[in-house]
Amino acid sequence: MAGIATFALIMATVPLYFVYSGPPPAWNVLARSLIAMFSMVALLGFAVGLQVLTRRVRPEEEPLATLLGALGVVLVAVDLVATALEAGTVLGRTEPLDPTLVGSGAGGALVIYGPVGRILTAAFLAACGGVIVRTRLLPTGLGWAAFALGALQLAFVATYFSGTDPEHFFSLNGWHLPVIGGLFGLWILVTSVALLRRQSPSTR
After folding, report:
1. Using an 8 Å Cβ cutoff, are 96 and 22 in contact?
2. Rounded to a whole number, what is the largest CA-CA distance in the chain?
3. Most buried in the list 16, 40, 51, 134, measured by CB within 10 Å?
4. Which residues neighbour 157 within 8 Å (Cβ) at sequence distance 6 or greater?
5. Distance between CA 67 and CA 10 in Å, rounded?
6. Predicted pLDDT of residue 204
7. pLDDT in tens, 109-130
C-alpha cells in the first residue's frame, strides 16, 4: 500500500511543475514540495516493507535486505533535503521565483535531484532487483526491470556536465527528470501490486 501511495503522490507532484510556463507562485512550489515530502515517507514504507519480507522469506539474505533498507533511508533523507532547499527559496518572497533554475538559491537541490539522486536511485533499484531475483519473492522479471531502470538512472548522471537549461532533455535540470521519475514510480506501482497479489489469500 505504501508503494501504491508513492506512485500516486509522484503522479500528483509532476503536473505542478508544468502548470506555469514562467516562475510559479509560492503556493505552487510549497504545494508540490509538501506532496513530495509525503511521497518520500511512503517510499520509505515501501523500502522497509520489502526489506521485512525479504528477511521473512529468505533470512540468509540478511546482508542484501539490510543494504536495501539502508539505501531506501538514505535516498529518502537526501531527497527530503533537496525538497526543503527548493521550498525554502520561496519563503518570505512576494514575487514569483522558479527554484528549478540556477541562481534561485536552490542550486544544491538541482545537484541532489540530478546526479546524486540518480546514483542513489540506481543503487536502490539494484538492491531491489537483487532481492527479487535471489529470493523469488516476486516474478524475476520485476527484478530485471529494476536492474534496467537502475542502468537508465546511471546514464543520466552525465547530465552533471550538460548545462542547466530546463528546456533541454539531457541537462542537469532538464525534463528527463519527470520522465525517469515517472518510470521509477511506475516500477514501484507494479511491484506493489504484485506484492499485494502475493499476500492475497486467493493467490496463496
Report:
1. yes
2. 57
3. 51
4. 114, 115, 118, 119
5. 24
6. 46
7. 888 888 999 999 999 999 999 9
Distance CA 35, CA 87 (A): 11
Determine the Cα–Cα distance for residues 174 and 8; give it in Å rounded to an integer. Answer: 22
Distance set, CA 48 to CA 54, 115, 144 (Å): 10, 24, 20
The residue length of the chain stands at: 204
C-alpha cell read off for 188: 514501484
Per-residue pLDDT tens over the stretch 70-91 = 999 999 999 999 999 888 888 8
The closest alpha carbon to 181, from 65, 47, 39, 48, belongs to 39
User: Residue 51 — pLDDT band, cuts 50, 70, 90?
Assistant: very high
Residue 194, amino acid: A
Contacts 24+ apart (CB under 8 A), 106-110: 108/82, 109/82, 109/83, 109/85, 110/164, 110/172, 110/173
Q: What mean pLDDT is predicted for residues 51-66?
A: 90
Closest by CA to 73, choosing from 33, 46, 109, 52, is 46
The one-character DSSP state at 113 is I
Query: 143: which residues sit within 8 A by CB, 6+ positions away?
Result: 128, 129, 130, 131, 132, 133
3-state class (DSSP) for residue 99: coil
Residue-range domain boundaries for the chain: 2-203
Specify the pTM.
Answer: 0.88
Do 3 and 188 contact (CB within 8 A), yes or no? yes
